[in-house]
Amino acid sequence: MQAPAIRRSRRRAAAGRVTTLRNADSAGREYVDTLRTLSEASSTGPHFEAFKDIAWDSPAFAAPADDPRWTLPDVDPLSRTDWFRCLPATEQRRVARLRIASITKTGSQFEQLLLLGGTQFLMGLANENPEFRYFMHELTEETHHIQMFQEFTNRVAPEVHGGPTLFIKSFPLVGMLGSLWPSLFFQIILAGEEPIDHIQKSIMRGGGIHPLTDRIMEIHLAEEARHIGFAHAWLRRHAPRMSRVNRFALGVTTPLIMRIGFWGIVVPSRQDAKAMGIPRDVLRETYSMRNPDFRRLLSDACADVRALADANGMRTRFTLWWWRRTGTDGRPSRYRSEPSRAAA
User: Fold this and answer.
1) 273-279 long-range CB contacts below 8 Å, 24 or more apart?
2) Exposed, middle or buried, 151 (CB in 10 Å: 0-12/13-18/19+)?
3) Percentage of the chain with pLDDT > 70?
4) Which of 151, 302, 328, 330 is the Cys-Cys partner for 255 at CB 3.0 to 4.6 Å?
C-alpha cells in the first residue's frame, strides 16, 4: 500500500494537471471564438477592393505634382528640419509628394513579404485548423492593399524606389520563416504593420493629407486592425507552448526586428533620398537616434508590441537591456492603439 502522504501528493498533482487542461481548453475556446469573429468580420464586415472602393478617376482624388495639398505630416521628423522649412513652397510640395509615395511603395513591398511568409505558414497547418480560414482572409486583403498602394505610386510618383535594396533582397529568405519559425515570422509581421499603423493613425488624427491618401489610409486602417489583432492573438495563444529557448530568443530578437522594420519603412532609401534632394548630413541627423523626434517616433510605434511582450513574458531582466539598447523601450500601451500623447 502507498503511504498516505504519497497518495495525497499524487492527487494534488493530478488535480493540478486537470486544472491546467481546463484553463487551456478555456483559452483555446476563447482563441477559436476570436478567429471566428475575425473571419466573419472579414466576410461580412468592412472589406474593400482596390479598384472598386476607390474612385481613382474622381476629380476630388486628382493628385497633380503641383497640388498645394502635398504636405509632409508632422509625424515625419523631416517636416521639422530647417532644411525642409527653408525650401520654396513648390519644392516642399515636390519633396512631400515623393516622400509619401516612397513610404506607400515600401508598404506595398512589405505586404508582399507577408504574402511570401504567409503562404509558407499556411502550408504547415493541419486540416480543420481555424487559423487557416482567417489568415487566408488576411492574405486576400493584403493583395488588395498591394494593388491599392501600387496604383497610388504609379499615379503619384512612379519614379520612387521604396525600401532599401538590401531590405527588399532579403524578403525571400525572411519569408521562409513562415514555416521554419512561425513565432518569429509573426513578430516580423508586427515589425512592419505596427509602425505603418501608428504613422497612419497619427496622420489621420492630425487631419489627413490629401483626399486620395486619406481614403487609402481609411481602408488600410480598417482592415489592418484585424491583421494586427490576429498577430497579437496568435502570439498570446502560442507563447505558453513555446520552449524557454524560443521564448528567450524572441525576447532578444523582437526589439531588434522592430528596429529594423521601423528603419526600413520610415527612413528613406538612398535612391529616394537622392530623388528628394535631401543632403546627406540632413538625412543622417534627421533619421538618427540622436534626434529626439526620431527616437520618440520609434518608441511610440513599439508601444503595443511592448505590452504584448510583457503579457507573453518576453520582456524580462535578461532581455530588457536589448530593448533599451535598440531604442524600442518605453512605456507599454495600456490598450491597443493608445494615442502617443497618452502613452508618453
Assistant:
1) 275/98, 275/159, 275/160, 275/161, 276/94, 276/95, 276/98, 276/99, 276/102, 277/91, 277/95, 278/78, 278/83, 278/95, 279/83
2) middle
3) 91
4) 328
The x, y and z cell numbers of residue 313, run together, are: 513574458
Round to whole Å and give the CA distance between 163 and 266.
9
What residues have CB less than 8 Å from 342, skipping those under 6 apart? 334
What gap in Å lies between CA 187 and CA 242, rounded to an integer?
14
Phi, psi of 7, rounded to the nearest 5 degrees? -65, -40
- Secondary structure of residue 49 in the 3-state scheme: coil
Indicate the class that CATH gives domain 46-343. mainly alpha
Q: What is the pLDDT of residues 214-254, one digit of tens each?
A: 999 999 999 999 999 999 999 999 998 899 899 999 999 99
**Grid coordinates in use for 252?**
532578444
More confident residue, 309 or 333: 309
What is the Cα–Cα distance from 187 to 123, expressed in whole angstroms?
19
pTM, entire model: 0.88
DSSP 286-315: HTSTTSHHHHHHHHHHTHHHHHHHHHTT--
CB 186 within 8 A of CB 235: yes
| Cell numbers standing for residue 42 | 472579414
What is the C-alpha radius of gyration for the chain, rounded to an integer number of angstroms?
A: 22
Q: Would you mind telling me the total number of residues written for the chain in this entry?
A: 344
Q: Could you report the per-residue pLDDT of 162-180, keeping only the tens digit for each? A: 999 988 999 999 999 999 9
Check residues 47 and 84 and name the one with the higher pLDDT.
84
Tens of pLDDT, residue by residue over 75-124, are: 999 999 999 999 999 999 999 999 999 999 999 999 999 999 999 999 99
- Please name the helix (run of DSSP H) or strand (run of DSSP E) that holds residue 36, with its range, or none: helix 4-44
Take residue 300 and report the three cell numbers written for it: 511610440
Number of separate helices (H) and strands (E) present in the chain: 16, 0
Q: In this structure, which amino acid lies at residue 88?
A: P
- Rounded to whole angstroms, the Cα distance separating 66 from 88 reads 12
